[in-house]
Amino acid sequence: MLTMRKASVDDAALISEMGFASYMHHFAHLWREQSELQDFLRQEYAVPTLQQSLQDERSCWFIASDPSPVGFAKVSWHRAVDDHGPVGTLLHKLYFLPGKTGLGYGETLLTEIARVAKSRGETVLWLEVLDANPNAHRFYRRQGFTHLKETLFSTPSQQSTLHILCKPL
Q1: What CATH number should be reported for the domain whose range is 3-125?
Q2: Is 35 exposed, middle or buried (0-12, 13-18, 19+ CB in 10 A)?
Q3: How far apart are CA 77 and CA 93, in angstroms?
Q4: Over the chain, what HEC string results?
Q5: Distance, CA of 126 to CA of 166 (rounded, Å)
Q6: Does 85 or 117 have the greater pLDDT score?
Q7: Contact predicate 96/64, CB 8 Å
Q8: How far is CA 109 from CA 78, 127, 147, in A?
Q9: Rounded Cα distance, 7 and 75, in Å
Q10: In this predicted model, which residue has the larger pLDDT, 128 or 156?
């Protein structure tokens, strides 16, 4: 049975390890330049960076276990989509280790995150998903998310379209 707990600073190394493993497994093929991928991973999942993020009260990290850790999520509270869009909980990350997708964990974790966000007075849950990730699109649409708008993620060698999806709570 999947359980979710709020991560602490002591979990930075665990999140780093899971972040590198899950991101490489699910998204490495989308990067043209391996050096840019490695720079991105170091920026996102370096232990000191994670320790700082884990102490930021505007964000929250969660670890999902069954019974050992299988994935994680990161949210930021009360974030605006843009100057004109809704304000709500931004789901930055919902990642699972290789072999741990398609088991219902994502729906369970997302449901719990939505419950926590709603208990904090949030009325919207939103996220960005890569255009090149059709499985994630299908998953989020099944969970009640709708397309709000598009934006770009750029590196020196490529651009990727991100779809911003939103769900009322």
Answers
A1: 3.40.630.30
A2: exposed
A3: 13
A4: CCEEEECCHHHHHHHHHHHHHHHHHHHHHHCCCHHHHHHHHHHHHCHHHHHHHHCCCCEEEEEEECCCEEEEEEEEEEEECCCCCCEEEEEEEEEECCCCCCCCHHHHHHHHHHHHHHHCCCCEEEEEEECCCHHHHHHHHHCCCEEEEEEEEEECCEEEEEEEEEEEC
A5: 4
A6: 117
A7: yes
A8: 19, 14, 21
A9: 12
A10: 128
Contact 2, 105 (CB under 8 A): yes
* φ/ψ of residue 11, rounded to 5: -95, 5
Q: 26-29 long-range contacts, Cβ below 8 Å, gap at least 24?
A: 26/95, 26/98, 26/101, 27/130, 27/133
Residue 127: pLDDT band (50, 70, 90) is: very high
Rounded distance between C-alpha atoms, residue 44 and residue 54, angstroms:
12
Q: Is residue 3 within 8 Å of residue 69, measured between CB atoms?
A: no
pLDDT at 17 over 90: yes
Sketch the domain layout of the chain as residue ranges. Answer: 3-125
